[in-house]
Amino acid sequence: MPRQRNRTFTSKVKCDEGRPGCLSCQRIGVACAGYDPKYIWVEDDGQTYKSAGRRILDCEKTWKGFRLLSSDQADHLISECDMHACVVLVDGPTSSQPAPHNPFSVFSAATRPSIGLMTEEPHLRPMMASFPDSTWVERMLFHHYVTHVAGIMMPYEHPRNPWKLYYPATALSCANADQQALYSAMLAQAAFNLTHLRGFDEEILTIGAKYYYSGIEKLLSITRGQSTDFGAMSASIMTIMFSEIYNGQSSTWRHHLEGAWSLFKEYRKSEPWKITDFVCVSIQSLNIVKIIGATSERSRNSEPFEHDSEEDDFAMSGLVSTTSGFGFTIGASQAVLDCISIISQVRSMRERGNMTRMADDLLEDVLSRLNKCRLDEIEADEVPIQIGATEAQKVSTESRSQSSSFIYSTYIYLYRTLLDVPPKAVKTYVSKTLQEVSTFSANSNGNFSLWPAFIAATEAYTYEDLSNAKRWLDWATSFGIGSRTSARRVVEEVWRRRETLSCSSGLDPGMISIDWRQVMHELNCDILLI
C-alpha cells in the first residue's frame, strides 16, 4: 500500500489544511506550498507525455478547443447554472443566442426555488435582442435586475409586481428621455446590488456610478423641458432613489422622494392613477415610501409649521391609499398604512407644539383601526392551511406573516412614539412581530419588509427576542441592499446603549427607552426602512 502523502511538496511539515493558511508552516516561518497551484497525482497511462507523478493543470491545454471566458462571463454563467432556458450572452454586444454548452452546468443542484432566481418574462428576450448597441455589461445588469432585483423589491412573489411586469418593458422602449433615464437607473440599481452581493466589488461599483450619473443627467434634461411620460418619469426618479439606497451611501434619497412627490402634485388634477396600472402602482409605491420615510424623519420642531402644505400632503396620501390593492408591494394593508401615517402626523404636530383636540381624536381613531385590523387578522388565522399546501396557499402564509407583523409593529410604533412607554410595555408586540418574521423565513426565501422587523428589533431586550432579531439581521443583510448594513448598525447600537445604561444604573433593560431616530442621527444615517 503506498504511503499517504500528507505533507506539503516543499517542506517536511505536515499540512493541517487550515484556512486561510497552514498554521504549521506559519509557526516555523516557511511558505506553505499547499495553497500554490493545485497539483494532481496521475498514473502512467500511455499518454504522450511522461508522467513525473504530478503536474500542473494547464488551463489552455485542458480547455483546448473551447473559448476562454473572462471572469465576468464566468460569474454570469455560474449564476445561471440552475436556471432553465436562460439566454447566455457571451459573444459581445451584437450576439444574443442560447449557449450550446455551459461548462458550469455540472454544479446544478436541486434547491428550494428562490425569489431571486426567477427567470425573466419571455417577451423580454426579443426586446433585448433588438438593441444591438447595448454592451454585454448592460445586458448582464439588465438580466440581473429582472431576475433578482425586481423580485426583492417586494417581500414575496406577486403577479402584479410592477418591477417585473412593467419597469423592464417600459425601460426597453427607450422612446423618450423619461424611459432612457429609467433604463440607466435600473442598471445602476442592479450594479449596486451586485456590488454588495459580491462582498463590495469596486469594479461593479464604478460601473453602477456611471449609470447612476447617466440617469441623473437624463432626468435633468427632462426637467429643463417638458416630460412626455409621467409614469416613466416618476418611475425613473424613484429608481434613482432606490439605487442610492441599494448603494448604501445615500444621504439624499429624501430629495428624490420630494421631487417625485412634487411631480405628482403637478399632475394630480389629471388623476394619473387612472391612466394605466403601471402609473397606478408607481404612485402607490411613491406614497408608501413617503409614509414609511416619515417614520424615520428627524424632529423638525425648529422649522415653521406649514399647516396647509402638510394637510394637502395628508389629503393626497389618503387619496392614493384608496386605490385598488394599495399596500400590496410592501405586504401591508391600506388600514395599517393609514394608521402609520396618522401616527407620524400626530408626532409632527406634537414636536412643533401644535397638539390640539384633533390630535387626541386621531390617536383614538388609530387605536380603533388597529384593534379592528387585529381582530380581522385573528379571524383569518383561524382558517388552517392544509398539509400539502399549494403555491397559492404558501403565498397566503407569507402574506399573513407579513401583514400580522405590520399590525403588531404599528402598535409598537404608536406606544413608543406617542406615549413613550418603555420596551417592557410593548414586549408582547415585539415578540409576536419577531415570531412572524421567523415564520416567514421558515416558509419563504423572500425579502421580508424592513420596517416591522426593525421597529420590533430596536425594542428587543430579552434573550429570545434578541436571538430572533439577530437571526433576522443576518438574513436581511444577505440580499445585497446596502442600506441594510446601516440599519444593522443602528439596531446594534441601540442594544449596546441599553445594555450599558442597564449595567451602570442597575435598571431592568426593559425599563430603558432608547430613541432609535436619535441614534440614527448620531451615526449619520438616514435609512429608508423598506
TrEMBL record:
Assigned keywords, A-Z: Nucleus
MF terms in GO: DNA-binding transcription factor activity, RNA polymerase II-specific; zinc ion binding
Entry keyword Nucleus: yes
Claim: Cell inner membrane is one of the keywords in the record: no
Subcellular location per the Swiss-Prot or TrEMBL entry: Nucleus
CDD domains xrefs: GAL4
Major subcellular location class: nucleus
Domain (Zn(2)-C6 fungal-type): residue spans on this chain: 11-38
Recorded GO CC terms: nucleus
SUPFAM superfamilies tied to this protein: Zn2/Cys6 DNA-binding domain
Protein name: Zn(2)-C6 fungal-type domain-containing protein
Originating species: Xylaria flabelliformis
Upper taxonomic lineage: Eukaryota, Fungi, Dikarya, Ascomycota, Pezizomycotina
